[in-house]
Request: fold
Amino acid sequence: MTFVPRGVPQHVRALAFLAFGLAACGDPAAPPAPSAASPASAGASGPAVAPSIPPPSTLPDRPLTGGVIARLGGTETVVVVDEDHAALHLTPDAKTAAAPDAFVKVEMPGAPAQAVAWGDTVLVTIRDPGLLLRLRLEGATLKEVGRVALPGDAWGLAVTRDTKRAVVTSAWTRKVSVIDLEKLAVASTLDVAREPRGVTLSNDGDTAWVSHLVGAKLTKVSGVGASPSAAPVTLAASPLRAPSGKALEAALGYALALSPDDSRLFVARHALGAMGREAWFGAPTVDVLRTKTGDGIAPLHQGNAMVYRSAVAKELETPDTKANLPADALSPFIQPRDIRYRATHQTLLVVGEGDNALVELDALGLDPTIGVLRTYVLGKETDPHLGGAKTCAAPSGVALSQDENTAYVFCRATYDFARVDLSGDPFEVPNAELVFVRLGSDPYGAEVATGRRLFYDATDKLTSGGLACAGCHPEGRDDGFVWHEASFDTPDGGTRSNFVGSYENVPDLAKTKGVPRRTPMLAGRVSANGPYGWRGESATIAERITAGMGLHRWGGIPQHAPENLTARASFIAAFIRRGLVTPPKPARTLTPDEERGKVVFESKEASCTLCHKPESEFTDRVSYPLKPLPAQKRFDDEPKAAFKTPSLLFLEGRAPYLHDGSAPSLERLVADNQDRMGKTSHLSEQDRAALVAYLKTL
Amino acid sequence: MSRVSPIAIAAVVAALSPGVAHTEPEPPSNAKPFTEGLPTEESKKPTPDEWRDAPVVTATRTGPRAKGCTVYRVREWIRVSCPDLVTSSIAVLGGTATGYAFWIDPQREGKDAKLPAGGEIQFPVRKGDRRVVQMLTFGPGYEGPLTQLPALVVQEHWLDDEPVPIMTIL
Reply:
């Protein structure tokens, strides 16, 4: 299907009025007039006006991409997906909603992740148990009309334009399901890489693109309409900021968006190891894939590219001056959670969970993060004591109004709905007031509420140097990444240990690459008093969190009283223990093979339980000087280190393994173990396979 | 930093402070998109005479940072000219490495000779291009009053299967 009939790419058309920032913005798709107000259905609390429902035959103009906010095409009826309250909030007119009573709360059978809406239909993914729910608008509320059981942790959702098929990602269980919506049945289930999240469909409904929370690869699902198959697609992260000639890894691929003509796919995520001033954590990025060829469109940074300097620049140059790296802000947004294409302006809207921002980016150039048009600060009411915003913290989704001149946002840490005026000159933030509506309070009380805000927040200078806990431990899980813990000098004085994404981030003078530290998963694994850290160096959880505050930055923590760190740590500890949700793990009896593996695991000869104690999260929390793992070129050696027995809970979903991430799978870990931990060399092929099968059930 | 005399720094800082008026007019309202009538054959780079008579064209998207810059086109050759931009350096960030010419005006009438003023970028627009070029200026920052700061970025690309190139100056 081609959308380029007149010799101009569709994503370039209609731009003439934008040149030199003219303010005139057309209103090409005026919404239909709302239908006459009808009385609310009996018994429903909330708005007195029923949503203006278009005739049921209404099909969407484009495939639908799910999100935390879904708008019903042709109306301003909006569904807000509230995971922590296992509920949806429905409002008939998001353009005017100004108070909680403009929303109706609809309970869900589990934590919902994303929704789409068309006609009188709303589809919602439920994480645990994995479900796709089909709901119908009835009066002012939603009624379930059917459901499909899906692999656990059903998350991302997209629907074809003819509304015959849906594609759902199951994050923890690493599956993509194609659902026949007419039969309300699964048509196909595909195995994919770790943490598939965002999904979006081509106009013809035949190709789905999937982003992953872990790794730089995407998944392309072909043949959605007939016989689906999945294949990985390589897309280097933030190529212009990569160390010369190197393709970077990525994390936080929660969302992606296609241009209206399907020619370009925009993936919002975090590039690990990207270069720039004090770029210890890398750089947030929007990477652009050319769908026809499957290539990234931005070129890779080459260290020897041409630089022409003025005489003064030549005189001032230091070894740290890197004129051929982008000089624009390293973090135009932090921890991207959602991205939408604004077709009327050929721009992209991205919400940053870490900096509570909505940014509008150019969608025409090779690297959208270099063309920041405007930034809306959504986080308000900064906490004077603990830092972070108390209103609109951690925005997690954005949707556009019918005319694309208003954005609707949901902030997941404070449960605020926000309405943002996008009208006017796209290079200027209009001074129209932001409207916030609080849709709930923290289900676990005030202490967890504070910890929750801080866990997602990257703006507080004491907690981190620009990346929140959730930047490396997304949803309390892990980024699948091996960080470099390196010791080096910074201008603020003294030698400090900091985390960096690649050894190229360390100043050359320090002559160190850092030691490898794979990010551990937190959810459901932090109930013990301690010790914490791969080397068990922190006696308590609070000590580990404050130690982290020093590691997760460039240089030292700004001047502070120690109690300011411990106060933050205690709130955060409360949240990571009580507020984080563990991945789905349906209770079931072990298969004979898994039983056999359990016997091996608990056998005296293998002696796994000597250290991995089943009664305490499968760890004794003691450090052991195991035989060193083979050295890796990217890291410094650590010959004499002792490592703490890690908990084995939730093993299956969080490869790679070991402190240096050197075991890509449990199969490899067991095959290569020899007798480094316990004893495995005596095991038969079948016993090894059984042991692995058992480990996957933990 | 220590290698530059304080006097030179003072001169540059003075020149950077507000009050340096833009002399460049806005592009004429009849300026055409740079893609209009773009030839697809390669030609030699234009002569100075040709540039003198070159028409002003518009980029696909231009941001406020490019205020004061003018884009000219001769055949497939583009020249982005920012006569009022205190240009510290011009760097290719990635992509097509050939065909460029850069100028930085070492001095301007009535100004200290140390002061770089005005920057220009020239390159041909051809199928297969992927160009990202950054212009830097001086300003107060982490390296003192003469920190090199971003001024604008020109991104031009023409993918094989797209009928026209795209150029943003942001």
